[in-house]
Amino acid sequence: MAYSDKVLDHYTHPRNVGQMDKGSAEVGTGLVGAPECGDVMRLQIKVNPETQVIEDAKFKTFGCGSAIASSSLATEWVKGKTVEEAMQIKNTDIVKELSLPPVKIHCSVLAEDAIRAAIGDWKKKNGVQESSAAPMVATAH
Amino acid sequence: MSTVESLTTPRNGTSHGVHLPIYMDNHATTPMDPRVLDAMMPYFTKIFGNAASRNHSFGWEAEQAVEQAREQIAKLIGATAKEIIFTSGATESNNLAIKGIAEMYKERGNHIITQVTEHKAVLDTCKRLEKSGCRVTYLPVDAEGRIDMEDLKRAMEDKTILVSIMFANNEIGVIQPMEEIGKLCRERGVLFHTDAVQAVGKVPVDVNALNIDVLSLSGHKIYGPKGVGALYVRRRNPRVQISAQIDGGGHERGMRSGTLNVAGIVGLGKACEISREEMSVEAERLRKMRDRLQAKLESKLDHIHLNGTMEHHLPGNLNMSFVYVEGESLLMGINDIAVSSGSACTSATLEPSYVLKALGLGDDVAHSSIRFGLGRFNTEAEVDYVADKVIDVVQKLRELSPLYEMVKEGIDLTKIQWEAH
After folding, report:
1. B354 vs B240: CA distance, rounded Å
2. Which domain holds residue A37?
3. Which of A71, A109, B77, B157 is the most buried (most CB within 10 A)?
């Protein structure tokens, strides 16, 4: 199986590997996938409570090279975006950027799920309505 | 930040005294032994006759070469030359054996017994027969990969005509209890076929000592050419009859029509001769290298799982799961080494290995498996290179693995509510 140069690059030099404090109110954590399916992604975002800008992102992934690349790319893309902007990232954008073949599309879907799960976790922690686009009320921390 | 730096570029050339890439996938196929090629060469251009031509020397010479190969093959498995039927390979041999027996013995019965870790050439042949009135029992295997003889006894009934159990498994290298199966089949008057593709030439096989009635073998697994195989069909005690599946000129005593692949057959014969002469020394050498590979991996890595019993095992096989690392991503990092994985991502069906699942392993362990297949041309230096590289890449991928991190933190992964997708 041939991998695209971008997949190889992310696999060889994964960006933003690591973990952040799950307990922090500024941090949202998304854990998606399942070991028996062959891929698990954990994506974390750190959000500035004033601006709602994602200032940092970290990931760890158990999965094939395309899954690693998809989640590595996702961390790069969410950084610097506001939470609402990050919600607009589509799996098809990831497929296009990494030139994923059809059998690897599920990797991009999982990465999109991971972004949404991390944002969802952060919103839940901070009392933001899931569908609300209104400015959040920062909780004391 | 962890990287898998410099590990992803396929390299051709030499490193640490080994030539890259390294081939360690000898259950898939083997390189041809140069001695086999030498034996074959004259049969392409000089001795090119049709072995069925009875009226001139071109035909006679070809026939003589074929008969010599028949002897060489028979000798390796304790058979006689007349019991060897040439085919295009083991897939055809398995099809011919199972379908041919089912058809020939349909008046006597319609029940076949096989087991779940067989090669698809056996399983899919049985599935097809189920559509035309046969009943097939698929025996389970235990966690070690072997069938339970009590299960086999229980499965046998009046209508049972055939037991088809592989000699050694192509993924996990586990050898089935051949002697016991053969003895039971003989007592019950049931024919015993074995797909012995992985065993012939690697471990001693004697069709009489083991009461094997029909046996499939292949050239390219034993350093011979691709596209040629054979079927052993017992002629005495009992005389086994098989309905031809390919009609035509009545070659191979009517069991398999088609002009003989003389050069390929010569190669198969030579490969069998070399294997017979060198088997004991080669098996010992492979076993030592396999043990060295296993010991090195076990000394540096935790959470690894050996798949299949090592007690009844092919000398050149090591099937290991590097838990919390997905197999395809591991293969990607060791891409100057040719091995196989049971990961779903490496299969056409996107399903993890059915063989590993049959052992009762979770899909997550199957996804993490690597099959190392050592062969005649591997060296100890290659084993050391492979061990070091695998250790390095597994460690790096585990730094990337949320599962490994969670386990290290003491989290029980089975208690987590994973979303299935």
Report:
1. 32
2. 5-125
3. A71
Q: Where in chain B is the domain with CATH 3.90.1150.10?
A: 13-32+279-415
Q: What is the CATH number of the domain that holds A105?
A: 3.90.1010.10
B13-32+279-415: CATH topology is: Aspartate Aminotransferase, domain 1 (3.90.1150)
* Biggest CA-to-CA distance, chain A: 51
**3-state secondary structure at position B283:** helix
CB atoms within 10 A of CB B383: 23
- Tell me, yes or no, if A64 is annotated catalytic: no
ipTM: 0.89
Q: Is there a domain that residue A105 lies in? A: yes
> In this predicted model, what pLDDT tens digit does every residue of A17-58 receive, in sequence order?
999 999 999 999 999 999 988 899 999 999 999 999 999 999
Residue A53 lies in a domain: yes
User: In b/e form, how buried is each residue of B340-349, taking b as 16+ CB within 10 angstroms?
Assistant: bbbbbbbeee
Within 8 A of B421 by CB-CB distance, chain A residues are 33-34, 37, 106, 109-110
In a domain, A55, yes or no: yes
Model confidence, pTM: 0.91
Query: Could you give the strand order of the β-sheet that contains B369-373, starting from the edge strand earlier in sequence?
Result: B304-306, B317-322, B369-373, B340-341
Kindly state whether residue A109 falls inside one of the protein's structural domains. yes
Q: Tell me, yes or no, if A107 is annotated catalytic.
A: yes
- Mutate: best of A9, A29, A40, partner B, most B CBs <10 A: A40
Residues of chain B contacting A16 with CB distance shorter than 8 Å: 1
Give which of B191, B176, B222 is closest to B77, Cα–Cα: B222
- Inter-chain CB proximity A17 and B1 less than 8 Å: yes
Question: Could you tell me the pLDDT band of residue B326, with boundaries at 50, 70 and 90?
Answer: very high
Q: How many domains does chain A have?
A: 1
Q: What is the DSSP letter of B218?
A: E
Q: Is A43 on the interface with B (CB under 8 A)?
A: no
Chain A residues with beta carbon closer than 8 angstroms to that of B357: none
- What is the CATH number that goes with domain B34-275? 3.40.640.10
Tell me, rounded to whole angstroms, the distance of Cα B128 from its chain centroid. 22
Residue B342 confidence (pLDDT): 83
Q: Which of A12, A38, A62 sits opposite B344 (nearest CB)?
A: A38
